[in-house]
Design a protein that fits this description.
Shape: globular
Order of helices and strands: HHHHHHHHHHHHHHHHHHH
Distance between the termini: 32 Å
Structural class: mainly alpha
Helix content: over 70%
Number of helices: 19
Largest sheet: none
Number of strands: 0
Length: 436
């Protein structure tokens, strides 16, 4: 349904007049939700098929292999995608320098991950981790060569192209995935899914914004990226610790099979984030950027957006909780029912993460990314203190509750900090444009 037809049915007051900020937000949300429906269908279909062929050990081994991938990716983050959407000046002249930085980063991370494979395998006494991690290391090199099609399109609020291209890519990845699981029938199928996803991102980036990349590096641009990424590295390291510490703890204390159950429960719990909040979150930065200098309007835009997101997420979460058993049986099959209580607990974490996803846009607009770091630090400190003792005492349920308690405290702090920023008058003139 087009935004124009929906506007006639519902009314212009709710959806905004043609060309207005509200109308652009609604139209963008519609297209990205359509993309999310396609991605959700392909991912869930893959999950249904894979769960009936693979075993918990396969998922557990893949989860362990992703630990160095996630950690190395976090401490080397550049934030270039955010810079492209946030820059108020001409950004196209910077793309070659941005691309060079990405490519060099991808090459270095490939080498680091390659050499990290043997120590990881030794720690968990799983020799099969060595070839798996080294295969996945090449993913960094592929992603390093990606262009900036999605970022450029989202900057101009052209969400239609993003939705169409990424939907087609998800179908292509699904076909490759199904072929892989029937040929290999073990954890290698999961690795091929990861690699196919990286290749699809590479191809789609140039479809969305065709251009010929070249090696070029301006010192001023490198300094800007370094300054911006410096504020993100600590935040991403903290988030990576939160994301992978439980994986390492469960794998070491409870074994790879239990880690497989935990990983599958985690996947289901994050469905509201993956297919809803993460889908619409890219809309908020370009939308809020247009009213960044108008504090009252920005407060209204954030308040209404947070209210709508919150209501939709809570409705979705209620359905997931009430029909949790049916969801597990349909998606994974009866042999995966041990994940049920863990899934229900982690669902609280997933719902909170879905609602708080709107907050980073305000922190970036007001040039306060350190506030994200502060919230993440609180989460990590609490999580680090609770994870091991609760896991030893209550096994997977203890791990899940440590995630929930730490995350809810962090999310409450994030909303408090956003309220503080929105209560202050916006910067004006050059400073306001620079912050936006």
């Amino acid at each position: 349904m087009s935004s124009r037809l929906l506007q006639r049915l519902v009314g212009s007051k709710l959806l905004g007049s043609q060309g207005s900020l509200r109308q652009k937000t609604v139209a963008g949300s519609q297209w990205l939700m359509a993309r999310s429906a396609v991605l959700g269908f392909t991912d869930l279909l893959r999950a249904v098929v894979f769960a009936r062929i693979l075993f918990p050990d396969d998922y557990g081994l893949m989860a362990l292999a992703m630990i160095p991938i996630g950690l190395f990716e976090s401490f080397s983050t550049t934030g270039i995608d955010i810079l492209i959407q946030r820059d108020s000046d001409e950004f196209r002249r910077k793309l070659e320098s941005y691309w060079t930085i990405k490519l060099v980063r991808g090459f270095l991370l490939t080498l680091l991950t390659w050499f990290a494979a043997e120590p990881l395998a030794s720690l968990y006494q799983r020799p099969d981790l060595v070839p798996l991690v080294r295969f996945l290391a090449v993913r960094f090199l592929i992603l390093g060569g990606c262009g900036f099609g999605k970022e450029v399109r989202q900057r101009s609020m052209d969400f239609v192209s993003v939705a169409v291209v990424e939907s087609a890519s998800s179908v292509a990845v699904l076909l490759v995935s199904l072929g892989a699981v029937f040929v290999w029938g073990n954890f290698w199928a999961l690795a091929i899914v990861s690699m196919a996803t990286a290749v699809s991102l590479l191809v789609s980036s140039y479809i969305l914004y065709p251009w010929r990349p070249g090696l070029r590096l301006e010192r001023s641009i490198l300094k800007d990226v370094a300054a911006f990424s410096g504020s993100l590295v600590i935040m991403n390291l903290l988030n990576a610790f939160f994301s992978y510490f439980d994986t390492g703890v469960v794998g070491k204390l409870l074994g790879v099979e239990e880690l497989g159950y935990y990983a599958r429960a985690y996947f289901l719990a994050l469905i509201p984030v993956t297919y809803f909040s993460n889908v619409v979150a890219p809309i908020f930065l370009p939308v809020f950027r247009q009213v960044a200098d108008d504090a009252p309007r920005l407060r209204r835009a954030f308040g209404k957006s947070a209210l709508v997101i919150g209501l939709l997420v809570l409705i979705m979460g209620g359905v997931f909780f009430l029909f949790a058993r049916e969801i597990v049986v349909i998606v994974y099959g009866r042999r995966w029912l041990p994940v049920l209580p863990v899934f229900q607990v982690l669902l609280i974490f997933g719902l909170g993460k879905s609602i708080v996803a709107i907050c980073p846009s305000i922190f970036f607009l007001r040039n306060k990314p350190w506030m994200i770091t502060l919230s993440a630090a609180v989460m990590v400190v609490v999580f680090g203190a609770l994870c091991i003792p609760l896991t030893m005492a209550y096994h997977l349920l203890g791990t899940a509750w440590s995630v929930v308690i730490a995350s809810l405290l962090s999310y409450a702090l994030s909303f408090a900090l956003v309220g503080y920023l929105l209560a202050r008058p916006a910067q004006s003139g050059a400073q306001g444009r620079e912050a936006a």
